[in-house]
Prior knowledge:
The protein is an alpha+beta fold. It has helices spanning 9-38, 43-67, 80-103, 110-124, 129-147, 156-172, 271-274, 304-310, 394-410, 535-553; strands at 295-296, 314-321, 326-333, 338-346, 352-358, 363-367, 370-376, 383-390, 433-443, 446-455, 461-467, 476-481, 492-494, 501-504, 512-513, 529-531.
Amino acid sequence: MTQSSVPGTDDMSDQRALITLAETAEDAASGLYLFRGSLPQYATKITAIISELFANSSVLREIFHAYSDFQYQPSFWRIHEDMGLLISSSQATYQNVLLMFRRAPDRGHHQLVWEDMRYRMEREESLDLLQRVQLYTIFLKAQRDIIKCRRAADIRQVRRQLKIMLEAQETGSGLRTPRVIIDADQGSPLPIPRPRQAGTSSQSMSPLMSPSDVPEGWALPYPSATPPTAPDVPLPSPGFNSGSSPTLTSSQTSYESDKFAQTSPHLIHWAQNVFQGSSPATRFSEDYRLNSRSVCDGPREPGALYEMGQDGFQLAIALPFDSERFWVQMYWRQDDNRARIFIRTKDHEGHDLYHCTTMQSLKVIRQRSCIQLCTLSRIDDLYNQWARLNFYHYERMVLFYCTFVAMKYQDERELQSRQLHDFCELSQPAGGEELLYGGVIKDGDLAHNLRLFRDQGSGAVRLEASAYRGRMRDVPLWTAFVSRWANDPDWAGLEPGSRKIISLAVIRPPPYVFLSGYTPPQNTQGQYILPFVSRKDASHFIEVWNRLCNSFRA
């Protein structure tokens, strides 16, 4: 960064570099979402990496906005050299991820290119991808706190670790040209995310910085045509002990030093487990499905990411729609479970557009294969569409609905209107889910509603449990997709010696849970069970299940 106190061309270059780096982190996160489904053995780690990349982007945008504020601008000289170190290393890391996308023409090559990148980072550059993006988050937050005159974490050890890693990155930058794998059936490799339109707007910068994009005094990003020279980074502060550099493992959630306790890596929200790995995929019938594209009609909020970062929000989950043209991200704040929905899409010129609001301000309305998220007019109490999400598969619609509603009601604030309550919204209007059964089960001292649904648009069948009473009444607790057993009457049967407990032979995948730490009840054999409150409810469930099986076999 320049040390000029008057905004000028150098300052504009500084700002461009920040926003370009943030957008590159978002592109890397978006691409990794596709890899996660192909690599179930790495799904948990990739999910954490995606979260950290969005955290990187969020703090970069905070610093970007602070740079335009005369209140903070005089302090930017303090982070000048550290930001040079950060930009050089993080840009190298992000470009390695984008290069990995380019090397894989299809899902069949995802594991190969992932393991190639993993080997290079872990064995030759000292830190794996998760560890380094966690370091970037910690380092960036400290830089943000410095310019805002807050008490910043001691980052001497992190600086040391980043410097060692950057030296390893630069040593190898000109020695390898990874091969691009081309599938003969496809003829071309998988492209990296589409570059944004050229221009001066911060939303139109290319995700790959060229040397002309980098402000004077900031190191060139890697890789380049020739190995870049080492950046002019600061030496450790006096008194720094090089032997105190922390050793990181993928299982660590904080640094060994107590000084880092307040800067632990990004937390994992339960929603990430919901969308981790594969799930059944029952397509809506052609005559039922709407051919509408996902849209957001809410007001644009260009500063939403910055504001959420300021307010302590963290990313819970990011979901792509319409071939990744449209992204829905859910954020939450740990202190009070405040929940927000953030939508990122593009205009006709390819520029990013941002929309954001609280989940509690939205009502879910199903419109065949679409979900409408609607605000309530204060003037006439009518619903106004804020966004419409298009789904091809029933199960994905269900998981989105249950996750959204659960996060909305776990927010500690009360809803402002009863008209914003959500109750079995996938059953409405006619043509949605048909309620086949409703009864009450218990788990310890807690009573839950149990419902069995059959969707009329796809034919799929699912179970859902929700709270029986209280503030969370009818909010989804767990759901299980059971279509594959809907022709087997023996799948559900009474437990030996019981007239109220029904065991389910198998549920794969296991029930999807929408509350942190909760597990549906199981018997000693590991089978999921339905402990009904009354024998009448249990026998009625068996009757309904048998009728359903007969209808499937007819």
